[in-house]
Write a structure and sequence with these properties.
Blueprint: E1 4-9, H1 13-21, E2 27-32, E3 37-39, H2 44-47, E4 58-60, H3 61-64, E5 69-71, E6 73-79, E7 84-89, E8 95-99, E9 102-105, E10 109-111, H4 119-122, H5 129-146, H6 153-159, E11 161-165, H7 169-189, E12 198-202, H8 214-226, E13 229-232, E14 237-240, E15 244-247, E16 252-254, E17 257-260, E18 264-266, H9 268-272, E19 283-284, E20 290-291, E21 294-299, E22 304-305, H10 315-333, E23 348-353, E24 356-360, E25 365-368, H11 369-382, H12 386-402
Parallel strand pairs: 1-2, 1-9, 2-5, 9-21, 11-12, 11-17, 12-13, 19-22
Antiparallel strand pairs: 3-4, 6-7, 7-8, 10-18, 14-15, 15-16, 20-21, 23-24, 24-25
Helix pairs in contact: 1-10, 5-6
Bound molecules: flavin-adenine dinucleotide.
Length: about 400
């Protein structure tokens, strides 16, 4: 029997859960992604300060499932009529073409800079492992540089100002992790500097954590106040320079580290496709996750949405979509039908620092230490492999006993 050729673009939540569930008895599967691993993003902010190590939350694509072909490349164009994709090798300039019978687009989203000048050049994003590693390095840099003898007080003050733009879950969790790092580890190593450290969280709207229940968002504001994290709402950044951000009201803020976390923009591939898209530039798909104009092409995760209902750009939705599509294709291979995709709401969780977390579930709104234990156990169960689960558990224990490593390597 000749198997249908399934080509998957991406190695994120959508692609990875698809890969795990697709039945290779019926399909020849090829993955193309510039990232050769799956990344469990919900724990990425923890790696940026060393609570968890980078390699504990990634899983190589090549070992995820035997019998699947993988190429480390980015798709740069799709010929829908000829059923081929154009790929650019991620490691050199070579270009190649791959054919498909079924195409699964799961390329995720890029960082949204809102076209604010200077962001791309000077801010750090928090999207991939290399971002988290660069942030971790920069935090230590700032402390080491701030302890230089004879450094003017104003320079020291600037280096020890950590500014985060975006009060969504990622910005909030990073601020919380940074606070813990400074409070629990850097206090001992830089006793003369910690008193001068400031963390500022800038949010353009009137509230942080807008997608969470209002009471939980207000709790976080009070909790951050106690932790001396300065939350500034209603303030948009209009320009970024190497050491300074400018706000809409004309004020300026000097910084040592700037982390930019203001949501999603389309990936260049999605931008280049002349297909129907939503207002926020996601591909429009039907209830079976197909492109209406090409029924052998599916789009999942952050890069796709429904025409009349904006699907949340979250890991849980992407994961459910990947598993749904694999099941649908497996059943189609034996001429069985699967109904339309329906997302289940598993609720939202966020870490807010000092062993406190939030849980916004359909039935319960939790916060505090017990919710923190729930947050940890929920993520431990959602990690994709036993190796990751054991490594993360070990990292948490290591951090509790020995603290986070502050070496600059
Ligand atoms: C720091 C952080 C924390 C988060 N925390 C949570 C959370 O707690 N809960 C939650 O539900 N969601 C969370 N999210 C959101 C979640 O990560 C995304 O919604 C989810 O990853 C979307 O899955 P995806 O498969 O669509 O895209 P991704 O997981 O982003 O994967 C996209 C893949 O496509 C690849 N790719 C990109 N361009 C191309 C191309 N041209 N060709 C081929 N491949 C390409 C990428 O390399 C990547 O492998 C978080 C996100 C971040 C950044």
């Amino acid at each position: 029997v000749t198997k249908a050729r399934v080509l998957v673009l991406g190695s994120g939540f959508a692609a990875f859960s698809f890969l795990r569930a697709i039945d290779l008895r019926w399909y020849d599967v090829t993955i193309v992604s510039p990232r050769n691993h799956f990344l469990f993003t919900p724990l990425l902010p923890s790696t940026a300060v060393g609570t968890i190590e980078f390699r504990s939350i990634i899983e190589p694509v090549r070992i995820a499932k035997g019998g699947v072909q993988y190429y480390q490349a980015a798709c740069s164009g799709i010929d829908f009529a000829g059923q081929t994709v154009r790929c650019e090798n991620a490691l050199d300039d070579s270009v190649f073409t791959l054919p498909y019978d079924i195409l699964v687009i799961g390329v995720g989203a890029a960082n949204n800079t809102f076209n604010v000048p200077g962001v791309t050049e000077f801010a750090f994003f928090l999207k991939g492992v290399s971002d988290a590693r660069a942030i971790r390095q920069r935090i230590i840099d700032c402390f080491e540089r701030a302890s230089t003898p004879g450094l003017p007080a104003l320079d020291r003050k600037r280096l020890l100002h950590f500014v985060i733009v975006g009060g969504g879950p990622t910005g909030v969790e990073f601020a919380a992790e940074l606070h813990d790092f400074i409070d629990e580890d850097l206090q001992g190593s830089f006793p003369l500097l910690v008193g001068e450290v400031r963390i500022t969280l800038l949010e353009a709207m009137e509230q942080i954590l807008n997608t969470f229940d209002t009471a939980l968002s207000e709790y976080t504001m009070r909790h951050f106040q106690r932790q001396r994290i300065n939350v500034v709402t209603g303030s948009s950044v209009v320009m970024v320079e190497e050491t300074k951000v400018y706000l809409k009201d004309g004020s300026e803020i000097q910084y040592g580290l700037l982390v930019w976390s203001t949501g999603n923009a389309p990936q260049s591939l999605i931008r280049s496709l002349t297909l129907d898209k939503s207002n926020n530039h996601r591909l429009l798909v039907d209830e079976y996750l197909r492109l209406p104009a090409h029924h052998n092409v599916y789009a999942l995760g952050d890069c796709a949405t429904f025409p009349h209902q904006n699907i949340p750009a979250t890991a849980q939705v992407a994961q459910q979509q990947g598993a749904y599509l694999a099941r649908a294709l497996n059943r189609a291979a034996t001429r069985k039908h699967v109904g339309p995709f329906r997302a289940k709401d598993w609720g939202m969780l966020a870490y807010v620092g000092s062993n406190r977390a939030l849980a916004d579930l359909a039935t319960v709104k939790g916060r505090g230490f017990t919710t923190f234990l729930f947050w940890r156990s929920a993520y431990l169960t959602r990690l994709v492999s036993w190796k990751n689960k054991i490594l993360v558990l070990f990292d948490w224990f290591k951090t509790l006993v020995f603290g986070r490593d502050i070496s600059r390597i």
